[in-house]
Amino acid sequence: MYAGKIVEMGPVDEIYGEPQHPYTKFLISSLPKIGDKEKKGSISGKPPSLVKPPAGCRFNPRCPFMMEVCKVEEPVLKEVRPDHHAACHLLG
């Protein structure tokens, strides 16, 4: 979930193993791993206002893959695998 919208849902193993939404990918990559001393990156920018969220995809101001359609059209959840859904224009 990002800014009050579900961006990805599915089986836990798939979400952790092969996340489809850019936000989910950032979240998974930020998780600490035992013995890993590498500094974790963060997502640039600030979380959006929940009172006046951005138009289109709420993640678009922070997404490195943002396209023009992301600014105007809210993506819908699409089935990317059985029981695995993600809401991103990158997924066609």
**Distance linking N and C termini:** 20 Å
Can you list the strand order of the major beta sheet? 1-3-2
Residue runs with pLDDT of under 50 for 5 or more positions: none
Helix content: 10-25%
Portion in beta strands: 5-15%
**Beta strands, count:** 3
**Whole-number total of structural domains:** 1
Over the alpha carbons, how many angstroms does the gyration radius reach? 14 Å
- Please give the largest β-sheet: 3 strands, antiparallel
Write a concise keyword list for the protein shown above.
3-stranded antiparallel sheet, 10% strand, globular, alpha+beta, 92 residues
Task: Chart the SSEs and their pairings.
Blueprint: E1 8-9, H1 12-17, H2 22-30, H3 68-72, E2 78-81, E3 84-86
Briefly summarize what is shown.
By secondary structure, this protein is of the alpha+beta class.
